[in-house]
Design a protein that fits this description.
62% of the residues lie in helices and 10% in strands. By secondary structure, it is an alpha+beta fold. The chain is elongated and about 90 Å long.
């Protein structure tokens, strides 16, 4: 009786068995991921190897259910990445997107060329090589495209698709391991200092996003004497704000009607370019401090009051009603100059300066409720996913291909998240997602995905490996994984002087590999890889699907 109960629990086909298999795989995998060998740990990739063991020892998840959990987990993972990096994505793409995507295309072409050479030299069947290539580049949509192309080419031979899937499963874990290994090898060879790379990345991102800086300017241009602050805004065509005016030992919050005088010290928040123009018009940047009696303070507040959402800085009336100046608005990692026309969004962090009592009143006007901020709004998440699924399902017909190409479920979800997080707000619907909620959903998504991949592959993984055929497939897959990214990695660091953290994102994105991205972001505690990953992901996903089908179309007979 007890043995039957045990068998039903662990080897049955019930919901309980499914949840148990998934939970055991994830829990055990996280423990594996924490194990360090030569100061290196697998991180979340440990869940994949845990799944291989669980699948090998007979625990199963019904195929349809497993496919759903795997794809939904991947959707959650890439969607939360898109939400995080979306606000900075377009500025980053305009600055570096073309170069990064060219590098990704070269990696794709090199990998496809390696697969063709393997096909011609070894004489392996096209279904096997298609599976090896898809597994080596960890691209599940590419596998599906190859299987569909094989089904269309040979509808009476369903076993061809199964062979492709087995080759994929054999090479997939080593595809992940290969990318991570290349990252670590490059880090060792070029003696990368992660802290220094993070500093360089932050400085470069600040330049791309035109992060505002603050300066004290001493008004010394006699031609400017008698000019109002409003007129100064007309003279300087770039955005800036003057938050403080120091005159005759007194500190005040100025407005556009205040007249500048020789000897005034103004505190300006602006871009680098605007600061140069202001210095030419007004006077030099000075180190003179603005002394005051302590009643004038700086503070930050969070926009959580729905009445302030979607109103511009000028419309909320804080500067007019209180002795307070709004200088900067921080939004999803971006710092924006608080111009009168800038519309506020839920979750914006407002930097203010003014009288202490007025600052407290202004903070209440904005909301500044930590409780409201930390409560995630679930509706926009699923609306974004719905829109992403629609985008990912749009067929693109290309002459010569038997089936239309699609961006795919995960590719569509990523694009949707980037778009909506960049828009930020539609009416009262905000796409703001607290960082803690974002990370929690992301980790749940990637562990679900890896667990399912491991359990599915574990059923025949070790038997195929022991037979010897699997070892050959794995070695061939490793060449497709390693050679292209190693060539581009060395070239990028040696000649292009690419930031190492961004290179990790490029390598992960060019092989559409969420586990490798997870390894880079968690190991180096930086969002730099995520930005680069997202920059190349959509284009890479499309080309990976196309080349998987191209291999079948060109060589299957």
């Amino acid at each position: 009786m007890n043995i039957q109960w045990f068998n039903n629990l662990f080897y049955g086909n019930s919901v309980t068995t499914t949840v148990l298999a998934l939970s055991l795989t994830i829990a055990f995998g996280i423990l594996i991921g924490h194990i360090k060998i030569f100061k290196i740990s697998l991180g979340m990739a440990g869940v994949l190897f845990s799944g291989l063991l669980i699948g090998h020892f007979g625990m199963r998840i019904e195929p349809g259910t497993l496919d759903f959990i795997r794809e939904f987990g991947l959707i959650l993972f890439v969607y939360t990445i898109g939400v995080q990096i979306g606000p900075a994505f377009f500025a980053s793409f305009m600055k570096q997107g073309l170069k990064l995507n060219i590098m990704a295309i070269i990696i794709i072409v090199l990998g496809f060329t390696a697969a063709v050479i393997i096909l011609l030299v070894t004489g392996l069947p096209v279904p096997v090589v298609a599976g090896i290539m898809s597994g080596a580049i960890t691209n599940t949509p590419g596998l599906g495209a190859a299987q569909q192309a094989l089904a269309d080419a040979a509808p009476d031979s369903p076993s061809l698709g199964q062979t492709t899937g087995m080759a994929y499963a054999m090479c997939y874990p080593f595809g992940i391991f290969g990318i991570i290994t290349v990252m670590l090898v490059l880090k060792k060879i070029f003696r990368i200092d992660i802290r220094e790379e993070e500093k360089k990345f932050n400085a470069e991102r600040d330049e791309i996003l035109m992060k505002p800086s603050s300066h004290n300017l001493l008004v010394s241009n006699r031609r400017l004497a008698g000019t109002s602050i409003g007129e100064l805004h007309n003279l300087v065509k770039q955005d800036f704000t003057i938050s403080r005016l120091h005159r005759d030992g007194k500190l005040s919050v100025p407005d556009n009607s205040d007249i500048l005088q020789i000897g005034d010290i103004i505190h300006v928040v602006c871009s680098k370019e605007a600061s140069e123009d202001l210095a030419l018009l007004a006077g030099d940047i000075t180190e003179i401090e603005m002394h005051h009696d302590g009643t004038f303070v700086g503070a930050t507040a969070i926009v959580t009051n729905k009445k302030a959402v979607n109103k511009s800085v000028g419309e909320i009336g804080i500067g007019g009603n209180f002795s307070v100046s709004i200088t900067k608005v921080s939004r999803a990692g971006m710092e924006l100059i608080a111009t009168p026309g800038l519309k506020l969004q839920f979750g914006d962090q407002i930097t203010m300066a003014g009288a202490k009592d007025d600052i407290e009143i202004a903070s209440k006007e904005l909301g500044n409720s930590i409780k409201d901020l930390e409560t995630p709004n679930i509706l926009p998440i699923f609306l974004g996913i719905i829109f992403g699924l629609l985008i990912g399902s749009i067929p693109v017909n290309i002459p010569g291909f038997q089936i239309p190409l699609k961006l795919g479920l995960s590719g569509g979800a990523l694009l949707s998240a980037i778009i909506f997080s960049r828009i930020g707000q539609i009416g009262r619907l905000s796409w703001f997602l607290p960082q803690s909620a974002n990370f929690a959903i992301r980790e749940i998504g990637i562990t679900m995905f890896l667990a399912c991949v491991g359990i599915r592959a574990g059923e025949k993984f070790f038997s195929t490996l022991i037979d010897g055929q699997g070892i050959c497939w794995i070695l061939l897959g490793i060449t497709i994984t390693v050679i292209p990214i190693l060539i581009i990695g060395i070239f990028s660091l040696l000649f292009l002087k690419m930031n190492y953290l961004m290179l990790c994102g490029l390598l992960s994105g060019s092989l559409t590999d969420p586990p490798a991205l997870s390894f880079a972001t968690t190991s180096y505690k930086s969002d730099a890889p995520s930005i680069t990953y997202a920059t190349v992901y959509a284009m890479t996903m499309f080309l990976r699907i196309m080349f998987a089908q191209l291999l079948v179309v060109l060589f299957f007979k």
